[in-house]
Amino acid sequence: MSTSSTIPAVHPGRIRVLKQASVQSKPMGPVVYWMFRDQRLKDNWALIHAVHQANQWDVPVAIAFNLFHQFKGAKARQLGFMLRGLKKLYSDIQSNFINIPFFLFQGEAVESIPSFLKECGASLLVTDFSPLREVRQWKEEICQRVHESEVSIHEVDAHNVVPVWVASEKLEYGARTIRGKINKKLSEYLVDFPNLIPPKLKWPTSTTDIDWDNLIANVLREGAEVPELEWCEPGEQAGLEVLIGNKNGFLTTRLKNYSSDRNNPLKPKGLSGLSPYLHFGQISAQRCALEARKVRNIYPQAVDVFLEELIVRRELADNFCFYQPHYDSLQGAWDWARKTLMDHASDKREHVYTREQLEKAQTADPLWNASQLELVHYGKVHGFMRMYWAKKILEWTCGPEEALALSIYLNDKYHIDGRDPNGYVGCMWSICGVHDQGWRERSVFGKIRYMNYAGCKRKFDVDGYIAYVKRIVGECKKRKAQDLLNNKSKQLRC
Ligand SMILES: Cc1cc2nc3c(=O)[nH]c(=O)nc-3n(C[C@H](O)[C@H](O)[C@H](O)COP(=O)(O)OP(=O)(O)OC[C@H]3O[C@@H](n4cnc5c(N)ncnc54)[C@H](O)[C@@H]3O)c2cc1C
């Protein structure tokens, strides 16, 4: 087994010092990793950094996780997936005898994290990185609340291949302006992960057991309006299976036609299916990229297109949310787009639907209704249909602000991968032309790129997609009814 001194240090460019301890002597207190966006043990630069620091200073290390009572309206679908993933992570810690205790707190992180740091006399708090405003506000507040001069706070970008602040120092205009900047840094950042070195020192106190089943039952009850998905198994191991599993892994069995099939909503298996795992950090994008590169000699085009989505487009979304404070409102659009949208805000619409009509898929467009039903029941709409879906909302609401708010509301409520920079940017791209260019001016859309039913018909078998959604929705409803029945008979037996 290697020792801590042989660990390659985490690239210093990945780490931002949010607070520097004023004490100069060797830190004596433990290291705490506040896990938020990167919920995994493997391939996690934030955890690697936390353990490395602890071993350097001969102090113990722990993981802290804060379960918020409410996080941006997440429901059973998203919270169930997250907690089941964490339950597996917790059990992996126990069964592999990893000397890193996992503490779970409930409530507000701005209270639980500083109070835990105080209680254990920590020297260093390590956090992972998210560009979302709530998370950045919590970190600012935690920096202010941690008065102890001997505590440092480090933020590690464990989510992006090239850390967001390294890739670019400014808001990028589009893929074409960030691509070269990211590619230039890949040789430095797209490197193999070291194995996680066991901490040298044991945590001094024992931890209390976590009643995962009770926690999961609570979130399922409170968020029952949007139930869990049966097809998407949570956890690190499941994420790796989706990437490289022998049975149905993306790189092992489905990659070949990615560049053509990824635009065909009738071929959902043509996509990787990785977004739930990437969103909850149950898999690292860097691991996906490293594995994809191993098969580039066999499928060069498919791998290049996949890496464009996985690295360039995904990290462009983080760039937008990091540098644009209005990443989810019309104010965040470029001037040309805002102007054209406002010029056409009062154009007459052929149909105007209420939120309820849209949510219930009650429009005159069967293709749109199918994508909305796929969203509500299946929880992951095909990438191509997400664009059509959002653009139609612009066409059918009273103005761009309402359209944007509604699309984000529906996206985040039902998508398993919702509340993600990709989602905010996806809606902003579709409705506000972010990362896009101006197109021929037309009613309602102005110069924003337009999509319509006839265009979809030319691209793929629209009726086939509608029939496919009908089938999967039928299956979801049948399963839900069966679950209800099982629950009722279980209650009766009790
Ligand atoms: C209106 C709209 C809403 C969207 N909402 C979300 C969302 O809530 N969460 C989310 O993760 N993605 C969202 N996307 C982006 C994209 O559609 C999904 O990431 C993709 O469909 C996920 O499926 P996959 O992992 O099987 O895709 P694959 O094609 O296999 O892509 C692999 C990975 O590359 C990244 N990627 C792919 N397409 C894009 C893109 N256009 N922009 C940025 N990154 C991309 C994702 O991380 C994805 O998981 C949205 C797009 C639009 C137009």
The first-level CATH class of the largest domain is given as Alpha Beta
Span between N and C termini? Answer: 51 Å
Q: Let me know the largest β-sheet.
A: 6 strands, mixed
Instruction: Identify the CATH homologous superfamily of the largest domain.
Output: HUPs
Helix content: 40-55%
| Biggest β-sheet: strands ordered side by side in the sheet | 1-6-5-2-3-4
CATH architecture of the largest domain: 3-Layer(aba) Sandwich
Strand content: 5-15%
H/E element order: EEHEHEHEHEHHHHHHHHHHHHHHHHH
Kindly report the average pLDDT value. 95
* Structural class by secondary-structure content: alpha/beta
- Ligands: flavin-adenine dinucleotide
Rg of Cα set: 23 Å
CATH topology of the largest domain: Rossmann fold
- DSSP strand count: 6
Which regions have little confidence, pLDDT < 50, spanning 5+ residues?
1-7
- Helical run tally: 21
| Overall geometry | globular
Q: How many individual domains?
A: 3
